[in-house]
Amino acid sequence: MYLAIDIGGTKTLIAAFSRSGRVVRRLKFKTAQNKDKFLLDLLRNLVVFEKYQIETVVVAIPGTVQKNCSVSLGNRNWGSFSLLKTLKKVFSCPIYLENDANLAAIYESYRIPGKTVFLTFSTGIGGGVAENGRLCPESDKFEPGHTKYTYNGVRAEWEDIAASSALEKTFNVDVATSLRGESAMQKIAARVNLGLPDVILHYSPRTIVLGGPLGKIFHLYTKYLPKYPGVKYRRPRRPLESVIYGCYIYAKQCNK
């Protein structure tokens, strides 16, 4: 059995998978703002899974991982800290830490021909590059949200223009997924398209998966995106669970 842990900005999801990919048990809890409280919450919730025969643990990190040991969360000003040490208090099996966007790319590219670029439009814009469920070397340095573009005469990073958080601020809505109407969709498509030519030029994907909250309204705005030869846009298979299922596939790969 494999254990997947997805640490998000607002909630942390834990799921135990059977070898065949069936979710046996899942739970989620609010990701605390304080590091020490988060670690205590994590330990308290992990105790629930001690009764299962966990062979491998994979943890999705919304930030950077240093030598599979310490981590730095992009959505928290906690600095670098050892998450592995905390997890070893509960599990003696192999434990792997990986960037969450990379894990989503693994899942979304699984059994898909050619190279896939996964883009998540959420608080920022992250992503990963994978081929048939395995990360490509260039994925480690893939940070599309920080590339600068000019939109409406203003020079800014792509994520400050097209991320879900930026759209919510621009359109004055609580959640970007509530947006509707042809005008709004055309504007979203224009913002999303700013970075696509560079992504296509540098990574030559056959498929671009547009995820995060924008994955839930994929069919509304993608019809306004320009077509690029040899490139197909695709909605995430699981818009809100790509990461946790990526943990499962990665665990299988590490367990071979």
Quick tags:
9 helices, alpha/beta, 2 domains, Nucleotidyltransferase, domain 5, five-stranded mixed β-sheet, 256 residues, 30% helix
Explain what the structure shows.
The protein is an alpha/beta fold. It has helices at 35-46, 83-87, 100-109, 158-162, 164-171, 182-193, 196-203, 218-221, 242-254, and strands spanning 2-7, 11-17, 23-30, 56-61, 63-66, 70-73, 81-82, 95-99, 115-121, 125-131, 134-135, 148-151, 154-157, 207-211, 232-234. It is built from 9 helices and 15 strands.
Strand and helix order: EEEHEEEEHEHEEEEEHHHHEHEH
CATH level-1 class of the largest domain: Alpha Beta
CATH architecture annotation name of the largest domain: 2-Layer Sandwich
Q: Characterize the largest beta sheet: strand count, sense, and whether it forms a barrel.
A: 5 strands, mixed
Structural class: alpha/beta
What is the rounded distance between the termini?
A: 13 Å
Could you give a short description of this structure?
With 256 residues, the chain is an alpha/beta fold. Helices cover 30% and strands 29% of the residues.
